[in-house]
Structures are given as structure tokens and as C-alpha cells.
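User: Could you write out the 3D structure of this protein bound to flavin-adenine dinucleotide? I've included everything you need below.
Assistant: Certainly. Input first, then the structure.
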Amino acid sequence: MKVYDVIVVGGGPSGLMAAASAGMLGANVLLLDKGNKLGRKLAISGGGRCNVTNRIPIEEMIKNIPGNGRFMYSPFATFNNEDIISFFEQLGIALKEEDRGRMFPVNNKAKSVVDALIRKVNEGNAEIKVNTSVKDVLYKEDRVEGVLLESGEQLLAKSVILAVGGKSVPHTGSTGDGYAWAEKAGHHVTELFPTEVPLISEEPFIQDRSLQGLALREVTLTVINHKGKKVITHDGDLLFTHFGLSGPIALRCSQFVYKVQKQGDVNDVLLTVDIFPSLAAADIEQELLELLKQQPHKMIKNILGQRIPERLLPILFEKAKLAEDRTFHELPKKAFQQFVQLLKAFPIRVHGTRSIEEAFVTGGGVSVKEIQPNTMASKKKQGLYFCGEILDIHGYTGGYNITCALSTGFVAGRHAGLEVTSPLNTN
Ligand SMILES: Cc1cc2nc3c(=O)[nH]c(=O)nc-3n(C[C@H](O)[C@H](O)[C@H](O)COP(=O)(O)OP(=O)(O)OC[C@H]3O[C@@H](n4cnc5c(N)ncnc54)[C@H](O)[C@@H]3O)c2cc1C
């Protein structure tokens, strides 16, 4: 029976890169995916444009990977964001930089990133099988032996790389199949949770949809824990939806909402929005008073819309107990100061996150404590490797997750390849 050098299970960014990198070393590689196409999640990533990596220094990259970012120092020492940029440019996919260092293909087509990776896999000594679902991973004593397919067929290999992703957006094939195989090998799988996911709120102004579609640009969002302490603040854009909050900063805060809910055993979590993060309350007060003074006989509701999103005004007036038909001359000082305070810390109670299936990323996964960071090899079974989102590593949106998938995939493939092509030289 044929024994492959390396079997890669999963043809997302991590598995494609692992197959390419093992193939580059001359290893005899088999790449299996249960879907009818490779890279299905990659093809819809970044709104179909694929935010493939981020051009910021490594220290900054690590800060943007709140789920075990420090583990990534080692894989990044072998293959990092700049290597990803060169890799794609060598394959004819030029990348461009957008805001906050985000890198996209110049042609804005995620599909071209998928196709380039497949071309690279095909350049190596690799065989690809789609519509081939792996049912189990076979182990013999302290070694991996191969895989068992849903069809009942067994395939043998010297190394197996598990690159089956997490549990998010399961229609792309990521249905969490790998966790049980990891546990069977003796690995610990940390609690799975949704991250980079919209937030649900039962606030009346969300439920009545009065803010639906409102986007606040360059604001900050802060998560407050059950003891009243600030947990995290993110700056950027916030979007009100029919069920709660979305947009980059809501996604970034989502994992902290989940954790505060869990740790405090509470249902609702307080968030505050600073609508003018670069201004102190006193400066806002002065600026608004000057604006009102220019038309002292006009109702404040007809003037403040010049500086504050109009749809927010009725809610702010109500919360500050400030009558909207007041004029500059009749402005109650205390209520106006309260109004200004609300601009600096507008409270929104959220009541959870959307589901793990709807999340951009799965938090938790195969514990990194039992993975060699310089090779991505399992510390439990020889010949077994992990890469990508199956691991307990997760980044914010901004290209960090695909970066982790490509970096860990490259390292896993390289070392699985080295294990068979030059077994004495795997470090
Ligand atoms: C809508 C969306 C947009 C995103 N946009 C971005 C972005 O722009 N930038 C960014 O950095 N991150 C983005 N992400 C996150 C990023 O796409 C993932 O983190 C990344 O795809 C994970 O790669 P992976 O290779 O580990 O797993 P996946 O991409 O999930 O691939 C896993 C593969 O394994 C296969 N598989 C699963 N089980 C089996 C089995 N039993 N047998 C055989 N094959 C199996 C699946 O079919 C699938 O092809 C986005 C995520 C979503 C959902």
C-alpha cells in the first residue's frame, strides 16, 4: 500500500500553504478537502477581496493577535507578513496597502489568491483530492499512521498535517472536525467561542431600529466588566444594525464581551462609545456652546445636528433630560453638561454575541502548549502537525487570521517535508 510522505487535511489557506511548502522540498504530498473546491472561506474573505496580511512591524502584529499572539513569534521568525507579500508577488499577485496596514490583491479578487496558492501546490510533488472527507486520523502507539476517509478507505502517511480550520461559517467546510482527532492524540482543546462577531443588544433604541444603518466613524468603544472596570478600548468605525452592533470595533470587542459575560456570570455587558475621542469634554462643551451662540434663538435640536449624528440626538436628549426645543438662552447648564458627558461615554448594554457559526473566527482550539512553535509539530504524536484556525490562536480582523494560517501552514509543511526529505535536519 502506498505511503505518502505528507497528508494535509484541509485545503484552506493553512493547508494549501502547508502542501505548497512540503512540496517545495520534494516531499510526496496528498492534500485532501471535503468540499468540491479548495479555499472556499479564503475566496469569500475580506468581502471577496481577501485581506491577505498586514504590513506592520512584528511587535504590532502580535498585539493584534489577542489569542496567543506570543506563540506566533516563532512561526513569524520563519515566515512572516513580509514573506507573505513576497510569496504572492512572486506568484504574480501584486498586493496593495490600505488603511491600518491592511494588504489586499491589487485586482481586489480573493479568488486570485486562492488560485495562486493552488498553482504553487501543483508546482510541487502534490496530489489534490477534493470531495474527500476525512473521518478520522489513525495513530499507532506514539506515531501518526494516516487517515481514514468517510468512504472507508485508509490512506497511510509518514506525516499528517491537520489544517481543517475552526467551526465558523460551516458552509465553507469548517465544521470543527479536527478537535476530536486532536483529543484522540492526547491534545487539550480549549473552550471554543465566537470571536470577531457582531453584538446583540436589547436596548430600546436597538429594538425599535431607530439607529439601524447608522455608522459612527473614528469613535472608540470600551467594554466595561461587571465590577465597573474598563476591559478594553478599540478605535475605529461602529455600525448600528437591526439586532445590535457591528463594524470593525464591535467585532474587535466581541471576544471581551463574551469573556465578561462568562467570568461575571452576567447576561448584559456595558459598552461605552466616545463619539469625540480626540476632544476633552470641556472642549466639546465650548465648541457646541459657540455653535449654539451663533443662532441663539433657534432650537438646539436644529443646530446640534451639524456636529452630532442627527439620529442620535433624540436618544441623547432623553438620556440627558434635556428638552430638544430649548434655545441657547434657555439652556440648563447641568443637563447640557450631562449631554456632553454622554458624547464621551454613550452607554450601550449588549446581551451577547451572534453565534460561533456566524463569527468571522473561532476562538479557542487545540492548545498551543502542546505544539512546538518552531515546527508546528505535536508534542503528543510523532509525525502529527497542526496549522491554522484549528489552533487556539486568533487575531482581530485586519488580515491577522490569514497571516497566522499562512505562517503556521508554511512552517508545518516545511518541517513535515524536512522530516522525510532530510530526517536529521528538522530544526
Ligand atoms: C466571511 C469571512 C471573511 C474573512 N475575511 C478575512 C480576511 O479578509 N482576512 C483574514 O485574515 N481573515 C479573514 N477571515 C478569517 C480567515 O478566513 C480564517 O481564519 C482562515 O480561513 C482559516 O484558515 P484555515 O486554513 O485554518 O481554515 P479554513 O479556511 O476554515 O479551511 C479549512 C478547510 O478544511 C476542510 N475540511 C474541514 N473538515 C474536513 C474533513 N473532515 N475532511 C477534509 N477536509 C476538511 C474544509 O473544507 C476547508 O476547506 C474571514 C473569515 C470569514 C468567515
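The longest helix spans residues 400-421.
User: Perfect, thank you.
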